[in-house]
Amino acid sequence: MKSFFRMSYPYLLWIALFIVAPMIMILLYAVTRSGNGTITFSFTLENFSRFLSDPTFLRVLWTSLRIALLTTVFCILIGYPAALFIANLPERRQTLMILLLTLPMWINMLLKTYAWRGILMNFELESEIKVFIGMVYDFLPYMIIQIHTAIAKLDRNLLVAAYDLGANRWKTFLKVTLPLSVPGIISGITLVFLPAVSSFVIPKLLGGGNYVLIGNLIETYFLVAGDWNFGSAISLIMALIIIGSMYLTKKLDRSAGEE
Amino acid sequence: MERKKTPGRFFSGGYLILVLAFIYLPILYVMLFSFNDSKSMISFSGFSTRWYEAMFENREMLESIYYTVIVALIATVVSTVVGTISAIGLSKARPIIRTVVLEINNLPVLNPDIVTAISLMLLFLSAKIQRSIVTLTLAHITFCIPYVILSVMPKLRQLDDNVAEAALDLGASPWQALTKVILPQIYPAVFSGALIAFSMSFDDFVISFFTAGVDVQNISMYVYSMKRFNPSVNALSTLIVAAVTLILVLANLIPALRERKNKKEEL
């Protein structure tokens, strides 16, 4: 059977070349200074301190985190009842509802965002509200599907048992359904918060030119300013924040599971 | 649990309809305005198919559709073949190697797209490779393979190792064991991996934007870089929505129809 392992050699080479090497390049660029066309390999933390000491950059970071958090909270608030109601439908209608929810996910995100631009032209709204609507729209189906999966997996006998033991619907929900659906909420959060922090298309198309998130900052430093070193440092900072928040949510999940 | 007509059910039904309305609002909006007589996205002045005609005369747009489809097809075929073969190989690797490789494999899935995008751009620029449709396709293959592996791997774990062993013991070559024993068992997972890969590639914007260079653009890049609003985009969206709906309906209908046929034959 060992000969089968050899089948994965080409891919090992591929990931070394196209996943590992590029990630190392970001790291290298982030901790070096740019020379005249060639990279001088002098180690520096200048790029990081430049970001962390400038209030303008920090404000962009704060805006990105705030809108991603707001989007996540609203996706849970809107998505949870929807997932719960879907789970209570007869099985055939459940399948239909999930199909209806997944269908728009297959349609190009740029095209959907452009459609929102047309709709929102009818209203006088602040840029942040427009971006917020676009983000909730884009990520809501992921949240609903994750929570629905968790609720649908739940053993119906537990609910019957709770009713038999005298709990009313509300109490059953609070003590049985809600705690058991936490894993679904957590995986929903990772599918919403993480891409929302780094998103740069929605702010650009819906927020207009002056609404800048961290993704837009990275784009500017790479494609307009041509400062790859600083751009790499910003994306490393963003990646670290994302990895950190993922670690935290995983921990939250585990402590919720232990209860 | 009996289901009765209660005010609660009315409420939950109404709520779900509202959520669906929100999700379908922009899609119906572009469909409607794709038939608009004027250029406006605010007022509907009359029915016309002029934007569909304009779309087929817009060379830049047609080119972007062509590039999107070509890149998605190549990326799907390559990533499905490489991903499936590698997943089979990895499933037979030592656990420690498998874990490490799968962690690295997960990187493009977990990383924000923009990080994957700039990492690949830095690679191509540093290696002095001109960005073109080739680098674009390489990038797409790179982010598609992990999804194929993630789709195929769980199915492989459910397989009974002994069946492939038995085939080898009975004189099958490894190639025969692979094509006659393993592949038929994991076929549905390979297919759904390919479907995910195609849609990831078809819809990608961020990674394409950083790796495609100046003379190649896919649909997403075309829409993003449009200087002025062009209502033909509404026509394009409508056609894509129609195609996606058709494919999804068929994908859901065919298994159901087949099942019904099998049941009939049993009777």
How would you summarize this macromolecular structure in one to three sentences?
The complex is a heterodimer of chains A (259) and B (267). Chain A has 12 helices and 2 strands.
Task: Note down, in words, how this protein is organized.
The complex is a heterodimer of chains A (259) and B (267). Chain A is mainly alpha-helical. Chain A has a single domain, classed as MetI-like (MetI-like fold, Orthogonal Bundle), CATH 1.10.3720.10. Chain A is 78% helix and 3% strand. Chain A contains 12 helices and 2 strands. A two-stranded antiparallel sheet of chain A has the order 1-2. In chain A, a hairpin with a 4-residue loop joins strand 1 (32-34) and strand 2. The radius of gyration of chain A is 23 Å and the shape is globular. The two termini of chain A are 43 Å apart. The model of chain A has no long low-confidence stretch (mean pLDDT 87). Chain B has a domain at 76-224: MetI-like (MetI-like fold, Orthogonal Bundle). Chain B is an all-alpha fold. Chain B has helices at 7-34, 50-57, 59-91, 95-110, 113-126, 133-158, 161-169, 174-203, 206-211, 219-225, 232-266. Chain B is globular, with a radius of gyration of 24 Å. The model of chain B has no long low-confidence stretch (mean pLDDT 88). Classes of the chains: A mainly alpha (259), B mainly alpha (267). The interface between A and B is large, with 80 and 79 residues.
Keywords summarizing the entry:
heterodimer; A: 259 residues; two-stranded antiparallel ribbon; 2 strands; B: mainly alpha; 11 helices; 79% helix; 0% strand
Strand and helix layout:
The complex is a heterodimer of chains A (259) and B (267).
Chain A (H helix, E strand, L loop, with lengths): L8 H22 L1 E3 L4 E5 L2 H8 L1 H33 L3 H12 L6 H12 L6 H27 L2 H9 L4 H12 L1 H17 L2 H7 L6 H11 L3 H31 L1
Helix pairs in contact in A: 1-12, 2-12, 3-6, 3-9, 5-10, 6-9, 6-10, 7-8, 9-12, 11-12
Chain B lengths: L6 H28 L15 H8 L1 H33 L3 H16 L2 H14 L6 H26 L2 H9 L4 H30 L2 H6 L7 H7 L6 H35 L1
Helix pairs in contact in B: 1-11, 2-11, 3-6, 3-8, 3-10, 4-6, 6-8, 7-8
